[in-house]
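go over both lines:
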Amino acid sequence: MVAITGMVAQNGFIGTTGPEMWVPASAQAEPLRAFDDELGVTMPMKYFDPLGLGKDDDAATFRRRRIAEIKNGRVAMLACMGYIAPEYFRFPGYCSPSADLKFTDIPNGVAALSKMPAEGWAQIGVFIAFLELFPLRQEPDSAPGDAPGCGRLGIPWFFVAGRPGTVSDPAGSERSLNAELNNGRLAMVAITGMVAQNGFIGTTGPEMWLPASAQAGSLRAFDDELGVTMPMKYFDPLGLGKDDDAATFRRRRIAEIKNGRVAMLACMGYIAPEYFRFPGYCSPSADLKFTDIPT
């Protein structure tokens, strides 16, 4: 049911049920790309540019985009960890002694933005500027993302030993560099979803990740029914059945099974016509063949 909803929506946006619907044009056979031998060109997306922003890029523009992609990916990976870690660990002591504000008093997620004192934001801004201008600056003659103050695995030698970092080896570290790019891409999507979900649900706790029906000790009268499986357990993400009696639950379950069966057939019906069509006519009087009907 989720799949067919997404397929219809994606078909509506992209306007096709062909391969372009599933994988961007940059990943299809023989894409006309000048940068297919660059780092980050991996399956399943191959040349990762789902919106086609770089289809007319020259080498200089590609380098600028790649530097931005690596930097944003690194920030996004740290942001994802920063969204989760405060649920389980906080620094002891005060964030602002003058304001009597402890680290444990600052809420997680989006709500923290309004609680951080202005002086704290100023310190963060100065620190970021220091990193951008000195140890993490991008040299014009170095590989994208290769900062002079860091070494292998991003170890910040300027902090650890006060010495310059090592020079990146794109050939020897190809697997690690590809992994960094792909993890950064995933993290950018993830942090966008986490911020949006936090904004809708209003928390960064377990309720953000799983509906209340999947959490321990949920008061459900139907936890011994079929379909109560991990990770969702009692599947009711919108809480529509929280007050159901046995008769209402039975009606909802009948509808769920029926809709699920229709959705499974619909998913197959969306894909199969790309590879097989019935021969002959759908409507002889209208001279309409099965192959003339779009998918």
